[in-house]
Amino acid sequence: MSSSITSVLTENRSFPPPKEFSAGAKVGSMADYEALYRRADQDPDGFWGDVAGELAWEKKWSRVLDWKLPDARWFVGGALNLSVSCLDRHVSTWRKNKAALIWEGEPGDSRVLTYGQLHREVCKAANALTALGVKQGDFVAIYLPMVPEAVIAMLACARLGAPHTVVFGGFSAEALADRIKDAGAKIVITADGGWRRGAIVPLKDNVDRALEGSSVQKVVVVKRCANQVAWRDGRDVWWHDVVDKASVKHEPKAFDSEHPLFSLYTSGTTGKPKGILHTTGGYLTGAYYTTKMVFDLRDDDIFWCTADIGWVTGHSYVVYGPLANGATVLMYEGAPNQPGPDRFWDIIAKWGVTVFYTAPTAIRAFMRWGDEWPAKHDLSSLRLLGSVGEPINPEAWMWYRKQIGADRCPIVDTWWQTETGAIMISPLPGATPTKPGSATRPLPGIAADVVLKDGTPCKANEGGFLVIKKPWPSMLRTIFGDHDRFQKTYFGEVAGVYFAGDGARKDEDGYFWVMGRVDDVINVAGHRLSTMEVESALVSHPKVAEAAVVGRPDELKGQAIVAFVTPRQGFVADDALAKELREHVSAQIGALARPEEIRFAEALPKTRSGKIMRRLLREVASGSKARGDTTTLEDQGVLEKLAQSFSNED
Ligand code: WT7
Question: Which domain holds residue 138?
């Protein structure tokens, strides 16, 4: 679609928050937003200190922030147990009998856990893990489907000061093995399987393969599907065998504010995923604050974030943010189209979901499935809608507003990253007039800007790099095991500021329009992948001599993976080989990385110095297919230019 149509849709349309909404909202007007933003900007210590003060601390901090670029320490000297803010403090109030978790499995089974019950389960799990040898500082790998035990396991780890590393159930045994090894995890928590589109995801089998030759001593297995799994006596234990009999009493110990809470692997420019490390006090402050402000949470809300706990969105908005706020969380195990394309709408109507947070790629799929599916259900409980993970195209935004939100619910398009820990740029739903496709303005406390390579702020509507100029509590502290790479990647690109890796522009109202990545990261259906990661997987195949991977705009997924492959001498480049290679990538990384298209080439275009000319390949890859409306031609041009001035680009 042409850029002029996009501008009509985006720039000339602004939706003020409905009056009734603003009246009761946490922040009810733009004037209030501006005042709060100014206060946070002028007195960040006072501002963040007040926010953190709403959590449960065992020992108060002596200083809010210690900042020596690139190293931040937040709430210095403070001590807390994160699970106390999420559980114990609610259990001592009326919320004890409030639903903390409403869970629905794909086959249609369900469970509801009150705060009192969730607290008991977490205490039992913490005692069980202790009995299995887990101690403060030990990494625990979690490879579970979306079942209540996933939330219980994460909170139990947090309670013990044992950092977790959750691996998305869609990752392969190989990818799981890499992450377990990199984190040095001692123990893995998994399940006999999980339900996805009517089939069982063989999680335990993947763990067995991932652990060949590894020093992991214990595997705790949740029984979910009652299917047959291989068993290694002495190593494998059933969750119910160790947790059911454990004591419900567990005394939480307070940990330093900077104690590691979790690492989460995400893709960067190189082939090796990075373990993004978050710590306790700052992360929880960010997750708590943003959930409260952006989702305007109230005690009678039922909050549904559809993300898997394997991604940061699941960490911050299925688990830590909502529970720190004492909210009721809805959690669903399976696919959105099982048994039919209206499963999500059925769930919203059935449980009375009030706040719904999902990804543009899902919204575009719903659009394609047809308006009749949401129309069959009563969605009147909804009062607020959210979007996250990739730029949302104006058409999808408008459809979401009309078909799901009945032209009545504000939409919050939230920009953030695994590294930022929590939402950075987003409308405040009672205050900020929205424009379809824009994440609008940074939250109070977040010094986001768009600048050129030398740090000069861009003029209105000039494309540049998205940066954050001041530290914030939930920022990553390091890349696990590679502090150098942390410094270079995030603080080595534009002097003195955090470099997000996204291209963006700010319009004349100061609204941010995020265009996409300027590095070799691609975003496929909201999943972040490195082109080099996919290339490494391809060249590890014996029939491949060389491979180059690029993203091309895709109407449904945002971007689709196109791989250019030169086979080794003697191998025929045919459909059978293409199929074999796609399966190979799937086995190496996971189905999410399977190339959409394999193109065989006798040689790849290279510069004189031997570097693959990715830009050319991107053009070739996008040229042959009709472009989706997700990336305008104009934005593509700006992104290409930015990518060239980005030093990691070849
Ligand atoms: C990248 C981060 C943190 C949420 C899940 C993804 C893209 C994320 C938006 C948005 C435009 C967005 C960016 C970012 N992104 N949200 N609202 N508008 N782009 O986390 O896997 O760490 O990916 O997702 O490119 O850098 P992630």
Answer: 114-256
